[in-house]
Amino acid sequence: MMNFYVLKRIGAALFFNLLVLSAFAQMDEDCSAHPDDELMHDEHCAVFATVPIADATHISVTNGSWFSPSTWNTGTVPNSGAMVLIDSATTVTYDAVSETEINWIRIKGTLNFKNNVNTKIKVTTIVTDPIGHLNIGTSAEPILGTVTSKIIFPDQGSIDISNDPYEFTKGIISHGFMVVNGEYKKTFCAISKGLNAGASNLKLAETPTGWKVGDQLVLGGTNSNYAGDFVTNAKYHDEVLTITSISGKTIYFTNNATGGTTLQYEHKMPTGYGLKIYVANLTRNVIFESENFATIPIDQRGHIMLMHNLAQSISYAAFNGLGRTNKDILATDPVVNDMGMQVSGGSNVRGRYPIHMHKAGTNNILAVPTLIKGNAIVDPTSWGIVNHQSNANIDDNVVFDFFGAAFVTEDGNELGTFNRNIAIKGRKATTHTNLDERTLNVDFGYEGNGYWLQSSNVSVENNIAVSCSGDAYKVFSDDASMPATHRFKIPKANILNPEIAGVDDSIYTAVVPLRKFNGNIAYNCNSALMFWTHMLNNDNVGDFSSIENDPYTHSIMSLVQNCSFWNLLAAGISVKYSGQIQFKNVLLLGDVASQFADSDWISGNPSGGFGFITSTVTGQIVYEALT
Q: Are 213 and 170 in contact (CB under 8 A)?
């Protein structure tokens, strides 16, 4: 029987010939995934509707080079505007540089980028099937350091919503196996001694493995100018540099802002505490980039989504100007009618980020997580790296010049790690800033946070946040206005202390203690750390204080330990509507000489200048070995 859902989507009379029947069979196959999850099913179906096999202009028929006519059913190499199918049981090798703009590529077989020659492809959309493989270097054979691989999302104007009413296109959406491995490059290095304005080199405390002449660096600021311009880095004093030579652990550079060979600003840490400052490398030899990203409208940038499959990995790649969910304004959700037409909600579609793990693997903490390692995300107008209802190890990455938040767990049931990452220069929303409005829209992480943590069940260790307009780390476990549909539970088999769930199979994230928060650093940020509605207990007696959490009670503490927070611009640590938190071996230093003398930094903020801030319904806080 004809699938009535497909008939509605097509919305036109059909002639029942063999070609049409074949197309219908393929559409039924594309819409058959996730029968037990309506939302995931609909997402899957909507993505594959944008790359219908029936529309393919070029189909691979044998293994071979992309640039060999014999690889394709047409006997011709894909031309401008081509719609390409890498068919199952075929492997196509991309092994040259091309300026031809491909419309879309659908991968049912394998697309390999050759690792020892320069490659470049300009393509609007790539979609991998659940059985498809996209390989841009592998762990065994990464893209060699002598070459580059570039994937450019071309500047072709607005998304065609008649073909893509949910606005998934202009990017990579991988349901299959996307594997990226560029050349190893140390993400950031420490500097043990302060630097004066006018310094002509950086003396690193460690070997800058993989760093090369021509690499772009960012040296995080250590103090700030309230009236300074954010765009030019005059506000937080971050400096973008280009390496001109390397001598052992000493780096020489040109300053991108001035064209000179010295630093504009001093970069100094308080002495006597063993503190360090950090410089991150933004250059990689695998590059994903929105063409003309500095000038095109935000909603025309590309994005990358790893959807519904955790068996994927991205390592040592650069993501330049990706992400189009603008965190300055409220996110929207497309509404599409039965004819497949978008009728509203397309102005700022949520979920389009530079790297976005989307609903992949929250059910089993023992599964091998998605790996996101050693990458550089530069100038996203959105969040940087997002774990959304997934299981992902997010380690050794840098996010620079971000909007809203750099590293995010989005809903609360996420698994995995944030380990040894660095977030630099976080911008905050100025247009839509009302918390109630944001909460009802389930649209958080807009304050310029380094790490936005709605899940307490990820390990957060040895990370760094620099020059953030908001809290460097924010644990946002719940809110009184949170829609019930977005209060997510964690299977008790996935938490460290499953006994706290009692007889239930799962438990709300709001009452799950932090899995691990250890060794984290923040400096030159507005404030260091905030807890919001985390294990809230109004009277410190008995059950937790909300209808959803009332059945649960336990005495396990969330432990924040071995952290260094310094040169904070407004305040230190805030604990609001939260409890059962222990702070152990934490260094907390303001910047009294530079910031608190300037009332502008704390105008409108009566809590400015305080080290610890707690609300009237905060309790059971333990302070141990603090400075």
A: no
Categorize the per-residue pLDDT at 9 as very low, low, confident or very high, splitting at 50, 70 and 90.
very low
Q: Name the helix (H) or strand (E) containing 436.
A: helix 435-440
Q: Three-class SS string for 293-356?
A: CCCCCHHHCCEEEEECCCCCEEECCEEECCCCCCCCCCCECCEECCCCCEEECCCCECCCCCEE
Q: How far apart are CA 68 and CA 407, in angstroms?
A: 41
HEC readout, 151-173: EEECCCCCCCCCCCCCCCCCEEE
Token pair 């492809």: residue: 121
* Cα–Cα distance measured from residue 616 to residue 609, given in angstroms and rounded to the nearest whole number: 19
Amino acid at the residue 42? D
What is the average pLDDT score of the chain?
Answer: 90
CA distance 506 to 414: 13
Helix 38-48 vs helix 18-30: angle between axes, to the nearest 10 degrees? Answer: 140
Mean pLDDT along residues 432-455: 94
In the numeric block, the tokens 């609360």 are attached to 412
DSSP state of 611: S
- What number of other Cβ atoms are within 10 A of residue 437's Cβ? 12
Q: What average pLDDT does this structure show over 188-192?
A: 97
pLDDT given for residue 23 in this prediction:
42
Pairing mode of beta strands 133-136, 521-523: unpaired
For residues 217 and 282, the answer to whether their CB atoms sit within 8 Å is: yes
Q: At a CB cut-off of 8 Å and minimum separation 6, what does 342 contact?
A: 161, 165, 166, 167, 334, 335, 336
Q: State percent of the chain over pLDDT 90.
A: 77
Measured torsion, CA atoms of residues 201, 202, 204, 208, in degrees rounded to the nearest 10: -80
- Which two tokens mark 72? 């394709």
CA–CA gap between residue 602 and residue 513 (Å, rounded): 31
**Which residues in 524-578 belong to E strands, given as ranges?**
527-532, 558-568, 573-576
CA dihedral 120, 126, 129, 132 (to 10 degrees): 0
Does the pTM surpass 0.85? The reply is yes
Residue 4 host element (H or E): helix 4-10
Burial class of residue 442, CB neighbours in 10 A (0-12, 13-18, 19+): middle
Number of other residues whose CB lies within 10 A of the CB of residue 622: 11
Ramachandran angles phi, psi of 51, nearest 5°: -130, 60
What span, in angstroms and rounded, lies between the C-alpha atoms of 97 and 383? 30
CB atoms within 10 A of CB 529: 27
Please tell me the distance from the alpha carbon of residue 549 to that of residue 547, in angstroms, as a whole number.
6
For residues 85 and 108, give the distance between their C-alpha atoms in angstroms, rounded to a whole number: 7
- The full DSSP string for 18-78 is HHHHHHHHHHHHHT-S-TT-HHHHHHHHHHHTTS-GGG-SEEB-SSEETT-GGGBTTSS--
Task: State the Cα–Cα distance between residues 479 and 382, nearest whole angstrom.
Answer: 23
Q: The tokens of 300 are what?
A: 């025309």
Distance between CA 49 and CA 612 in Å, rounded? 52
Bridge partner residues of 315 (DSSP): 181, 373
Question: Which one-letter amino acid corresponds to residue 75?
Answer: G
The phi, psi pair for 48, rounded to 5°, reads -75, -20
